[in-house]
Amino acid sequence: MAADPESLAARMMPIDGSADGESETVAAVPIFQHPASRERRLFLMLPIFIGILSGLLVVCFRISIEWLRLGLMGKQLRPGDWRLIVVPTAVGLVVALLVEFVFPAARGSGINQTKAAMYIHDGYISLRTMFGKLICTALALGAGYSQGPEDPSLQIGAAIASTVSRRFRLSPENLRLFAPVGAAAGLAAAFNAPITALLFVIEEVVGNWNASVLGSVILAAIAGDAVSRWYFGDAPMFQVPTLELRDPRELLAYALLGVVGGVTALLFAGMLRQSRPRLAALPHWTRMVQPPLAGLLIGLIGFLGFPQVMGVGYETINQAIGGGMGWKLLLILAALKMLATTLGFSSGTPGGMFAPTLFVGAMLGTAVGSLQQLWLPHLTGPIGSYTLAGMGVLFAAFLRAPLTSVFMVLEVSGNYSIVAPVILANTVAYLIARKFDPVPIFETFTRQDGLDLPSMEEMREEARLHIEDALELGASISEDSLQIPVLPSTLRLREVLDAAAASPSDDGVVVLHFPDGSGYALDGAELERLGTGASPETAVGFLVPQERLPLLYPDMPLDATLHHFGRWPALLIRNRAQSTAVEGVLMEAEVLLCYREQTAHH
Amino acid sequence: MRLYGGTLKKMRFGVHSPAVLGKHHPLRRLAVKDAIALGTLAAITLSLFGITGLYYSAYTRYRAWLGLPTDNTPVITLPVVRRH
Questions:
Q1: Measured between alpha carbons, how far is A31 from A8 in angstroms, rounded to an integer?
Q2: Residue A465: CA count within 13 A, CB half-sphere
Q3: Do residues A204 and A111 make contact, with C-beta atoms less than 8 angstroms apart?
Q4: What does the alpha-carbon distance between residue A394 and residue A400 come to, in Å, rounded to a whole number?
Q5: Average model confidence (pLDDT) for chain A?
Q6: How many Å lie between the alpha carbon of B14 and the closest alpha carbon of chain A?
Q7: What are the backbone dihedrals phi and psi of residue A146, each rounded to the nearest 5 degrees, phi first?
Q8: pLDDT for A357-400, tens place per residue?
Q9: Partner-chain residue, chosen from A30, A59, A70, that has the shortest CB–CB distance to B66
């Protein structure tokens, strides 16, 4: 915690700003701010603690789900067992009471709540919410609700990060940034997949590759994953046999899987989109009966012959990877899982969407692989390849995380031999889903909750304007009428004054170009002021201050120019390859015109 | 007591901080607070490690009592197998 004496002295300046501290009227008041170096150090140190704490809590969370499941439902789920109906119904009532009276913020999956905390509440998630999410989700999943533990784990991690970072009184900006750090740790511990957690948080929660938060997210994800592996071992999440792409023509089947996955994701999202607001619009007291009723219906599905859809469902995915399940059963399981998840989630029962997404994708993928094996056995590789690709397909299309989906498949399987088909299938599914449903499901939930959070999908699709666009637009509409003169700095003052008078700009703006390629923009008034008392024959380069225009190139984002107009009347755009060459001159009006054109075009 | 030609009282031990970093300076207080907070955090982390370990071993014993394998064979959410 060493302090830099100079910066410290600067902060101890009198409040009137005089450096010598001899102000007569105002006494020196120490203006204390936390040193920036402290927060930088904490950004490296705290993520390790956050990762470990999140990992430990997620381990407890996962054990609790298992324990409750074994205690409430027994060792095996068998159709016709009365517990399949009674347990989800009774536990649903308990969860409803807990959510209504004790943990009202525990509803939902956890991803939107984490994003809301980050963007609205300065990264604040209370410990009460965290424990509520942990207890309610463990109860629900242990009782057979068809949701997943990953999204709640993400929120548990974010809550830990929020609590720890608040204890250190960080700046509000950094408090906000710590939420995704914990989120990555929680997800990594739940998934045994740190790369997936890192990418998901960057792709879906943060939305940009901000270097300052990236290092912390990596540290936390690794720490969380290490704790999880400490307890549960380091084997991949799914036991996958040796996979291969047997024939390049098999890629067509993966493309078809992409189409099927894209359509299914649309259907799944549509079910949730329709049912959630309808159930939420019912009278408030129905919130007490919705979860038990959903539990009853989910239990009925299991009771009547399909207990595989109950609970998280990873063991069924492992069975599917091993083959031996008929394609009809697989398709039925996929459909029933979507129904059961929609019931549970829309009723307000806490629980995540990751595991159901993987389940539905795995069933679809295995079904497509089974059909391929039936009709074209000589072109079909191992069924497990299709199961994994199917999981990735739904992940990409339903959760709209195309990059994460590819790494997720590779990481949970520990197998890199099917990367090409996975990329193909995921891309096809993602494009189909995005084409027919531009609003991702979590954005829909956000809007249904009356929140307006930044949309990562929209940010990805946003067409960014560049400096060259403004230059081209300026050239196309003004020909040579608005060309700001670029004059050599060796030109005499009187010649520059003449050029300023002839400048198409109302203020007589000219740009001086120095031999080293740098520039200085000034208007007629500044030119006259600088030239006061100077000989008209003086080279103008000697009159202007040492300050120079910022370095700007045509490929840079147009946004980067805006704040420079607070200081400069015009900006010189230079050439990256030839430092003394000038690409053009940009005026504020041209930049604004470019934005207007873009808006009008859209 | 006389030592090295002077009194012990006159001798200066230790390194003195700059005046600006005096005992009651906010930066110094902040450093102390941070150290306490980090120590507390480390203690909580270690305690939670212990609690999780106890919880895990209790769960393992429960599995053994049910006749289930105790090597994390998956039931629902623990689909990982510890490699021996």
A1: 9
A2: 22
A3: yes
A4: 9
A5: 85
A6: 17
A7: -90, 60
A8: 999 999 999 999 999 888 888 777 788 889 999 999 999 999 99
A9: A70
- Compute the nearest-CA separation of B13 from chain A (Å): 21
Q: Quote the tokens at residue A354.
A: 């990751």
Is residue A159 a contact partner of residue A129, using CB atoms and an 8 Å limit? yes
Confidence category of residue A34, pLDDT binned at 50, 70, 90: low
Q: What is each CA distance from A155 to A177, A457, A576, in whole angstroms?
A: 14, 21, 45
Q: Is B82 in Cβ contact with A62 (below 8 Å)?
A: no
Q: Is B59 on the interface with A (CB under 8 A)?
A: yes
Give the dihedral sign, CA A357/A359/A360/A362. positive
Cβ separation B21–A8 shorter than 8 A: yes
Answer yes or no: do A164 and B83 touch at CB < 8 A.
Answer: no
List of E strands, A378-514: 486-488, 510-513
The verdict on B72 touching A (C-beta cutoff 8 Å) is yes
Check: CB of residue A216 under 8 Å from CB of residue A47: yes
Q: Using an 8 Å Cβ cutoff, are A546 and A447 in contact?
A: no
How far apart CA A394 and CA A341 sit, in angstroms, is 14
Q: Could you tell me the pLDDT band of residue A339, with boundaries at 50, 70 and 90?
A: very high
Residues of A in contact with B49 (CB under 8 A): 52, 56
- Which residue in A367, A317, A366, A573 sits closest to A469, CA to CA? A573
Cβ atoms of A99 and A348 closer than 8 Å: yes
CA–CA separation, A252 and A388 (whole Å):
16
